[in-house]
Amino acid sequence: MKIEQIYTGCIAQAAYYLESNGEVAIFDPLREVQPYIEKAEKNGAKIKYIFETHFHADFVSGHVDLAQKTGAKIVYGPTAQPEFEAIIAQDNQEFKVGEYTVKAIHTPGHTLESTCYLLIDENKKTHGIITGDTLFIGDVGRPDLAQSLVSELTQEKLASYLFDSLRTKIMPLADDLIVYPSHGAGSACGKNMSKETTDTLGNQKKTNYALRADMTREEFTQELLNGLGAPPAYFPQNVMLNIKGYSSLDTVMEKSLKPLSPSEFEVLANQTEAVILDVRSEVDFVKGHIPNSIFIGIQGNFAPWVGALIRDVNQPLLLITPEGKEEETVTRLSRVGFDGVLGFLKGGFESWKNEGKEVATIKSISPEQFASEMNETSIVIDARKPGEFEAEHVEHAINAPLDDVNDNFMNLPKETFYLHCAGGYRSVIMASILKSRGIHNLINVEKGMSGIRQTNVALTKFVCPSTLS
After folding, report:
1. How far apart, in Å, are the Cα atoms of 224 and each of 40, 64, 220, 349, 454?
2. Would 47 disulfide with which of 72, 81, 428, 444, CB 3.0-4.6 Å?
């Protein structure tokens, strides 16, 4: 038997490959399913089951494509109602994978259908538990994502369900069980996840705030809901794709990977409502880009930021990528349901520039220049999250998180302001969005707080922040 975690850092997601005696089960697969198929074939094994822990909100699962390509059966937990063929497991129902047994344990709370899968070896010993978004390392799943599907649900009611699931279904299990969650630090499906992606259940009982034995239901609910921001706009759309099904990734790739000359690209940009998405580095983007294009660099948390800021997964897109990164970009967009790529600029931005077409730039300065220009009248906008801002920020700066830029851009100062984030990535995203909305009175600070911290600019720590409203 072997159990392998397949972790994808850019969306902080973990899929699992279980193999025993020539049979394979895949848990929560990514949309690009060919690697799972090739792994099984290389081992002379056959994929028998595709276990889904719940209807995911933060990514489009590969369950439908994988089932169509392999004949494997999709399995969901009780109450799930997918619009495609699937086995709806009963609570405690068991499935054989070679000499291993997979036992479905219904754990509603994150969503109503949320189900964990207990792994039992050939000697009837429990080895591990795949917990989906029910239990993370250091955290548990947020209970506010399923409300849009069932009108009478509230986050408080789901939190109460989760309290019971953890205490009656998970905490009584053996301390030596390995916990295999679906996400790690950086996922928006929780708020306090560890950078570690596995642990023993016993250690989680000692260290995870949500598993405190003396915790009341009311205390659990309060702690769980405290500090939850609004979920990203694309989450409900991804849930519906996972319920209803979606276009094959092969079809999406064939449709999207269309090289366009600068003239063809320009015509499509003018004739459609496509967003021009530039995924190069922030350093390259500030030096030159197509006017009104949006920067979200592929080297960062690319797909989650696309989903959070572009919002509609049906939005047509035109891509500007580094040469050779076209397929990777389309693949990563598809992971969060953005299948509307119309094509990419052949030859990249250089081809646009070489044809003498209009180019825009962003005024960008070093941290040292920022320090030399700063005075008591300077306006500084900090694009980081509130928690980052509270921990340390430039004195008198205003917190305007990138997450909220689409709602708050009209509230920004009319005077020239300095814009920074933690390392330079998010501030350029924000600057590109603002410039596309006609806001040009900004100066980007390169390297963000990591660079500013090395200068003599006055910083404030642990002070209730000023915020943009």
Report:
1. 39, 32, 6, 45, 36
2. 72
